């Protein structure tokens, strides 16, 4: 099972085991990762699962599609490394993925 590390704004971290095929948001919700609200349940209809992808993982997680870009307009403190975790599918290649949770989610 791929492991994903979520780093909180205070620097604390939580390692989550994810199942291949689920989204990063689903793995975060199952593990009760603070700051990942996912109010729309993963429908890419809000920005409450916003994360920052660590630089060395950005190529493997890919770029946001147009719909995701539109939803990121509603997020706070959007950066080049911003993604919605509901749009990142877990694969074996993402084992070790590091994500930062924004200080403010909505």
Portion in strands: 15-25%
Q: Architecture, CATH level 2?
A: Roll
Summarize the helix and strand pattern as letters.
EEHEHHEE
Helix count equals 3
In CATH terms, the superfamily is Beta-grasp domain
**How helix-rich are the residues, as a percent range?**
10-25%
Secondary structural class:
alpha+beta
Average pLDDT, to the nearest integer?
A: 96
Domain count, please report it: 1
- CATH topology call: Ubiquitin-like (UB roll)
Protein model, in words:
This protein has helices at residues 24-30, 58-61, 66-72; strands at residues 3-7, 13-17, 50-53, 82-84, 97-100. With 106 residues, the protein is α+β, with helices and mostly antiparallel strands. The protein has one domain (3-100): Ubiquitin-like (UB roll) (Roll), CATH 3.10.20. It has a 5-stranded mixed β-sheet with strand order 2-1-5-3-4. A hairpin with a 5-residue loop joins strand 1 and strand 2. It is globular.
Essential attributes:
106 residues; alpha+beta; Ubiquitin-like (UB roll); 5-stranded mixed sheet; 5 strands; 20% strand; globular
List the helices and strands and how they pair.
Elements: E1 3-7, E2 13-17, H1 24-30, E3 50-53, H2 58-61, H3 66-72, E4 82-84, E5 97-100
Parallel strand pairs: 1-5
Antiparallel strand pairs: 1-2, 3-4, 3-5
């Amino acid at each position: 099972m791929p492991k994903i590390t979520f780093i909180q704004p205070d620097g604390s971290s939580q390692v989550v085991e994810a199942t291949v095929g689920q989204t990063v948001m689903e793995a975060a919700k199952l593990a009760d990762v603070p700051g990942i609200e996912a109010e729309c349940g993963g429908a890419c209809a809000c920005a409450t699962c916003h994360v920052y992808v660590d630089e060395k993982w950005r190529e493997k997680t890919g770029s946001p599609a147009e719909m995701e870009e539109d939803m990121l307009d509603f997020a706070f403190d959007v950066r080049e490394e911003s993604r919605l975790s509901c749009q990142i599918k877990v694969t074996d290649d993402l084992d070790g993925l590091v994500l930062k949770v924004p200080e403010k989610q909505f």
